[in-house]
Amino acid sequence: MIEIPARRGRAARVRPGQRVKVINTHGQQVVDTWGFNAADIAEFMSMEHSRVAMGHIIPKPGDVLVTNRRRPILRVMEDTSGGIHDTLIAACDRWRYELLGCAEYHDNCTDNLAAGLAELGMTPPETPSPLNLFMNIPVLDGQRIEFLPPVSTPGSFVVLRAEMDCIVAFSACPQDIIPINGTALHPTAAHYEILD
Fold first, then answer.
1. DSSP H or E run through 158
2. What's the pLDDT at 150?
3. CA 134, 138, 142, 145 torsion: positive or negative?
4. CB of 135 within 8 A of CB of 9?
5. Positions in the chain short of pLDDT 50
6. What residue spans define the domains of the chain?
7. Half-sphere exposure of 49 toward its Cβ, with a 13 Å CA cutoff?
8. Residue 68 — φ and ψ, nearest 5°?
9. Measured between alpha carbons, how far is 60 from 80 in angstroms, rounded to an integer?
10. Residue 52's closest CA among 64, 37, 60, 34?
């Protein structure tokens, strides 16, 4: 297993047919997840296109996540986490934390994506809206959203299968102002492994 350190990002190359197991090690950690076509990172996993392809807003086993060119990139194979994830919310960034009252720099998922890809010598073309694994954003009355703690438990996981040669990137979300990573407001590490 490879650690995604608390408040930090990682990225890995994944071949078609390989599976990525994303583990919520301590149970209350959101893991922002992105996929990029390894041959052309201007093609990336798109939540707005994936919601159309799936026909719903929370992916479940069997669902295919697609790119901004509407091609399959990752397929959900297993989910032991309670099945609550988010496809609506943009990655946090310095401006999000400024709006939450931070006067100084705060770690954020946008910068974590850039740092994870930089380790592979790449620069994201933009910050696509991520698949927020384990994030609990219920839609109320068909209109309003709430930011609630994850329902996932320690050691629960999601397995994604690569449908193309891709780069998968992760951020162990550093949010510690609202209870996205649990009511303790304490981001923790997560882990992943690549399975053949």
1. strand 156-162
2. 97
3. negative
4. no
5. none
6. 9-174
7. 16
8. -70, -5
9. 11
10. 64
Query: Token pair of 5, please?
Result: 């350190």
Question: What pLDDT is recorded for position 121?
Answer: 97
Residues facing 158 on adjacent strands: 22, 79
Q: Which amino acid is present at 65?
A: L
Helix (H, G, I), strand (E, B) or coil at 136: strand
Pinpoint the alpha helices (H) of 55-159. 94-99, 109-118
Residue 35: both structure tokens together: 């996929």
Q: Tell me what pLDDT residue 183 has.
A: 95
Pair of tokens at residue 39: 């041959």
In the prediction, which pLDDT does 80 show?
98
Over its C-alpha atoms, the chain yields an Rg (Å, rounded) of 15
The overall pTM is greater than 0.90: yes
**What are the tokens at 24?**
């919520």
Residue length of the chain: 196
Amino acid at 107: D
Tell me the two tokens of residue 34. Answer: 């992105």
Location of structure tokens 């990172």: 41
Backbone angles phi, psi at 117, to 5 degrees: -70, -35
